[in-house]
Amino acid sequence: MGARLPDRAGLTPGAARPRCRAAGHFGGLTPRGRVEQRARAVAGGAPIERDGYFLQPTTLDQVSDGVRVVDEKQFGPVLPLISFRDEEGAIARANNTEYGLSASVWSADVEHAMTVAARIDAGQVSINGHAEAVFPHLPFAGHQQSGVGVENGPWGSYGFTETQVVAGPPRQHN
Predict the structure, then answer these.
(1) pTM of the full predicted structure?
(2) Cα(46)–Cα(54) distance, integer angstroms
(3) Residue ranges of the chain with per-residue pLDDT less than 50
(4) Other CB atoms closer than 10 Å to residue 142's CB: what's the count?
(5) Is the CB of residue 15 less than 8 Å from the CB of residue 54?
């Protein structure tokens, strides 16, 4: 959360309240939305009163597939906690989405976590962290509906280039 930009910039931090309310954004995080979706905020969950539209970092439990905060990209400081019975079920749930920007695998066994990470359909999978590899020299790309193309590194440059081959007889050098 940064400081408010000068009004002449025409920008404010966070999203505009009228737009968010009209579009129903964050609706599942309001007390009424949580009750309707049976989610429980175990940390955070309240708006931060200031310019813009900010929400406290929030952890939700009692959520499952089929709930907006789980099924849709929310790009907010919200972590829905979903229980699973076994590893195969967890991997299946992680891949049962139309999105795939980033994911994380948490485990005391890093080697096993690497094996699990390789099975997750996301552009970036971090071990015991989240978004740990967002650096200018590494490719950044989402899978499925989470983006087209690649940013960063030489891979990101390829999308802005057109390759041309000029073939002909050998050139004479003077």
Answers:
(1) 0.64
(2) 9
(3) 1-5, 7, 11, 19, 21-24, 32, 35-36
(4) 19
(5) no
